[in-house]
Design brief:
The protein is of the alpha/beta class. It contains eleven helices and 13 strands. The strands form three sheets. It has an eight-stranded parallel beta barrel, surrounded by seven helices. The structure holds flavin mononucleotide.
Amino acid sequence: MSSVLFSPIALRGLTLKNRIAVSPMCQYICDDGNANDWHLMHYGSLALGAGGLLTFEMTNVSPSGRISQKCATLCSDENEASWKRVVELCKKFGGAAIGIELAHAGRKASTVPPAQGGRALKPEEGAWETVAPSALPYADWHTPRALAKGDLVTLVDEFVASTQRAHRAGFELIEFHAGHGYLMHQFLSALSNQRTDEYGGSVENRMRFPLQVFAAMREAWPKDKPLGVRLSVTDWVEGGLDMSQSLLFAHQLKKLGCDFVDVSSGGLDHRQQVPFAPGYHVGFAEQMKREVGMTTMVVGLVTGPKQAEEIVASGKADMVVMGRGVLYNPRWSWHAAEELGVDIPYVPKMFPAHPSLRPAVFPNRAKA
Ligand SMILES: Cc1cc2nc3c(=O)[nH]c(=O)nc-3n(C[C@H](O)[C@H](O)[C@H](O)COP(=O)(O)O)c2cc1C
């Protein structure tokens, strides 16, 4: 059977062998932001057969931009070397292109990891000052300091420096995190951005800083490497960011050379009411793709091969992005190919597991 899911897709100079991506997922296991042996095992495993693109977890451009003390950073030589080791292993043995998600948590920094309750760190636990467009906290977490103009210049420099480090570490793609309630999203949403300068007020003003950061990153990232954005297209809260504003933002990103948009939602306001259901972002992705015409990825409860095939074959999105589904089944793409009747090559060393070598299917090839 021919499959769109298993057809290649080009993003600038990078051609992905299929349209399945592994979603960035924080591991909350770094010391000083460095990758370690867990990352070798975890990403090494996912690089073998989860998808054509493997995007590493939210990696912050400064220690103060971390969600927790155990989150990843890419802002020192030590960080760079640690992530390079993981990228090299994945590329040496795996079959996926390797990307990284660059971010700053803003007012959602200085917390304990979600598995330990996801609350603000206490002073005696090493809490640090958080920053945001305005001095408005997320739920009952820390009240952030409103960023001054000079801080914005520093932040641009930090995103640029991490972008350059990502290139040196061997990453092939960057996803700029402008969703899930983190710093860029805090600028975009009127619920968290109540600035009175040119970075607040109208949607054009709220987009200004994320667009400045994106443009600087694009300039610093090699021309043949793709740079895209993860967006929360709606806050699911009255008065928050909505699809019409997200479409405006995406149009501007496209003008700046954005290669893809990864459609997600929520994370900005604890009052959100998210209608979780299989593929619950697909409608937004479809509208994004139709109205903006940028390569569109969709994440969120995409778990089944036929579901994934339908999403891309019908043109609702160009790629599917999977989180928990590939944690559950790190060989998801192999199993999807078999279910869809597509013959895909496996990475070397793994070929004996290929369905075509099962005697019941191809007795002659099994003898060879
Ligand atoms: C353990 C875990 C860690 C996550 N960390 C990140 C992250 O670092 N960056 C991000 O953009 N989303 C993160 N997410 C959200 C996922 O990338 C994904 O958007 C979400 O899980 C919905 O997709 P799914 O239904 O396929 O799991 C995380 C999700 C999980 C389960």
